[in-house]
Amino acid sequence: MSSLAFTPERLEKFKQTVALYEQPASALLPALWLAQEQWGWISQDVIRYVAGLLGMTERQVTEVTSFYFMFKKKDMGKVCLQVCNNITCTMMGSEKVMGVIKEELGIGPNQVSADGQFSCLSVQCLGSCDTAPVVQVNDDYFENQEAEKFRALLKKWKAGEKPVSPQPL
Prior knowledge:
Blueprint: H1 8-18, H2 28-39, H3 44-54, H4 58-67, E1 79-84, H5 87-92, H6 94-105, E2 111-112, E3 118-123, E4 135-137, E5 140-142, H7 147-158
Parallel strand pairs: 1-3
Antiparallel strand pairs: 1-4, 2-3, 4-5
Helix pairs in contact: 1-2, 2-3, 3-4, 6-7
């Protein structure tokens, strides 16, 4: 039996969210977001915990977490780099951005750096074709990323800074 539990603040937010729906299971996506915020990723223990809170089976929760790539299935480090690899981003240079990640961090898709600080994911579409190539870093979009521009950003993260994503026009 796991001793996993939401913090009191998150549990209160969870209860408020569930109250918005006729069926508790309808609150699954927001509950998973709360869980990922707290634990950083969705482990089997987290799936079991959320399923229990919502009166769902573990299988039902697993089906949802496996469908959406935004739910991390393993510990992905503090800085998760998601590089869009759809046709537009690829044509605009996302493979070069991926090369910078390999050069600077020594990791490729679905890998975590040796220090556990960075991870890399190649994702199908981030819905920002007009600003390709795009990289989602944790929850922030960095658009129009060319290799050297992204290298400069990556060096800031490596130095412990947190670059701010410019707001779209």
